[in-house]
Design a protein that fits this description.
The chain has a single domain, classed as Vaccinia Virus protein VP39 (Rossmann fold). About 30% of the residues lie in helices and about 30% in strands. The protein contains 6 helices and 11 strands. The strands form 2 sheets. An 8-stranded mixed β-sheet has the order 6-7-5-4-8-9-11-10, sandwiched between helices. Strands 1-2-3 form a 3-stranded antiparallel β-sheet, with no helix packed on it. Helix 2 links the parallel strand 4 and strand 5. Helix 1 crosses helix 2 and helix 5 crosses helix 6. The longest helix has 17 residues. Bound molecules: S-adenosylmethionine. S-adenosylmethionine binds next to helix 2. Keywords: Methyltransferase, Transferase. One of its GO terms (molecular function) is oxidoreductase activity, acting on the CH-NH group of donors. InterPro entries: MnmC-like_methylTransf, SAM-dependent_MTases_sf, tRNA_MNMC2. It comes from Pedobacter jejuensis.
């Protein structure tokens, strides 16, 4: 069961009773998504690019997706977005987040009208955006594609340690192009070692409010 819960910046998140964790930071869902994934990930990696491909781990409510779609639309960047999700939310729960308030009507409608189809196969949701949400676990996910950016947005190591093992991090990193960018809200010694072991250089960046630091890593 997922319960809609307000966060400190006024945006909602979901509380997942089974896992015992929120989908986003209680200090602000919207500000965390913008800080970690849009600013440190997409804006950084898309400088000078006309197109970008993103692999997200954990589609959840789609907040990272709609903000990315909006940013790429406004900046005329072609977006190929793949987001792995083991336990897709219903469209009714997604609508209850009220994230429609943070993007244009066109972006929201493009997302909502294609969400359920994107869980089955890739959808072209606008002239600049393709979306696919493979309904699978990260461990079972396979593709021939390589991506420019990985948004690693799994539940925390305290609640889902299997999503932070050296093996699963290596599996995720294998889908990134050389020079690609890996971003996540978390940073631990174990994670830094796992990412470095895959040939990445790491950067500690200031975290979103409520977290001192976050990780950005670049594949050699
Ligand atoms: C922190 S939430 C993601 C929040 C999301 N990015 C958003 O903007 O709402 C973690 C997500 O990972 C999904 N998940 C849990 N186990 C998974 C697995 N083994 N493989 C892929 N996704 C998983 C959960 O269902 C949940 O949607």
């Amino acid at each position: 069961m997922n319960i809609i819960t307000p966060t400190a910046d006024g945006s909602n998140t979901l509380y997942n009773e089974t896992i015992g964790e929120h989908y986003h930071s209680k200090h602000g869902a919207l500000q965390e998504s913008k800080h970690v994934f849009i600013d440190a990930g997409l804006k950084f990696a898309s400088v000078g690019k006309a197109e970008i491909s993103i692999l997200e781990v954990g589609f959840g409510t789609g907040l990272n997706f709609i903000l990315s779609f909006e940013y790429c639309t406004l900046n005329n960047i072609k977006l190929d977005y793949t987001s792995i999700e083991a336990f897709p939310l219903t469209i009714d729960v997604i609508k209850q987040t009220r994230y429609s308030e943070y993007v244009s009507e066109q972006t929201w409608k493009g997302f909502i009208s294609n969400y359920e189809s994107a869980l089955k196969t890739e959808q072209t949701i606008s002239p600049i955006c393709d979306l696919e949400i493979p309904h699978t676990t990260l461990a079972d996910f396979e593709t021939d594609k390589k991506f420019d950016v990985i948004y690693y947005d799994a539940f925390s190591v305290q609640h889902q340690p299997e999503m932070w093992s050296d093996e699963i991090i290596a599996h995720a990193c294998s889908f990134l192009k050389p020079g690609g960018t890996f971003v996540t809200y978390a940073i631990t010694g174990k994670l830094k070692r796992a990412v470095k072991a895959n040939g990445f250089t790491i950067e500690k960046l200031p975290g979103a409010p409520g977290k001192r630091e976050m990780l950005r890593a670049i594949k050699a």
